[in-house]
Design a protein that fits this description.
single chain; alpha+beta; 9 helices; globular; binds inosine-5'-diphosphate; binds magnesium ion; nucleotide metabolism; ATP binding
C-alpha cells in the first residue's frame, strides 16, 4: 500500500557492525548479536574473517596520521573479527547509541562498550558513523552476493505499515 512504500526506504537503512578481535576472544559475539536482534534490527549479512591489512588500511584511512594508528591496525589484525550488516529504521544512528562512546571509560552503562569494556584501545565493536560511511564500509567488507534481502514476519509489529 501507499503508506508502506512511504515508510520502506528509511526502514532499509543498513550499517556495518564488527565484533573486533578482543570481542571475539572474550566470547562476546553472541551477546552483541543478541542486543541487535532484540532491538528489532534485521541481520542481512555476517561472516567471520581475518581482516587483511589492505582492508583495514581502507577502513581506517581517516586515522592514518594518528599516533595510535599502527597499534590500531595490529589490534584489528590480531585475530578474527565478525563482520555483520544490520538493517532497519535509523539503524546507523541507533547502533552508534547502542555501542556508546569510543572511549569505553566514558561509555554509558547500557551500551555495548559501557557494559563490556574498559579501555579506548580495546573497545570490542565497530559501528559505522554515518549513512554515507556505512555504504562505503559495507562495500569494503562484503560482496553484494553476501547480503541477503529477506522479510521478517514480525515487520508490522516493529513498524507502522
Ligand atoms: P569509533 O570506533 O567510535 O567510530 P573512531 O574515532 O572512528 O571511533 O576510531 C576508530 C577506532 O580507533 C576506535 O574504535 C578505537 O579502536 C581506535 N581509537 C580511536 N581513538 C583512539 C585512541 O585515542 N587511542 C587508541 N585507540 C583509539
Ligand atoms: Mg569511527
Amino acid at each position: 500500500c501507499l503508506l508502506y512504500s512511504s515508510v520502506t526506504p528509511d526502514v532499509r537503512e543498513r550499517t556495518l557492525i564488527a565484533v573486533k578481535p578482543d570481542g571475539v576472544q572474550r566470547r562476546l559475539v553472541g551477546e552483541i548479536i543478541k542486543r541487535f536482534e532484540r532491538r528489532g534490527f534485521k541481520l542481512v549479512g555476517m561472516k567471520m574473517l581475518q581482516a587483511s591489512e589492505a582492508v583495514l588500511g581502507k577502513h581506517y584511512h581517516d586515522l592514518q596520521r594518528k599516533p595510535f594508528y599502527p597499534a590500531l591496525i595490529r589490534y584489528m589484525a590480531s585475530g578474527p573479527v565478525v563482520a555483520m550488516v544490520w538493517e532497519g529504521h535509523n539503524v546507523v544512528r541507533s547502533s552508534r547509541l547502542m555501542v556508546g562512546e569510543t572511549d569505553s571509560s566514558q561509555a554509558k552503562p547500557g551500551t555495548v562498550r559501557g557494559d563490556l569494556s574498559v579501555h579506548i584501545s580495546r573497545n570490542i565493536i565497530h559501528a559505522s558513523d554515518s549513512v554515507e560511511v556505512a555504504k562505503k564500509e559495507i562495500g569494503l567488507w562484503f560482496h553484494s552476493a553476501e547480503l541477503i534481502n529477506w522479510e521478517t514476519s514480525d515487520h508490522s509489529d516493529l513498524y507502522q505499515v
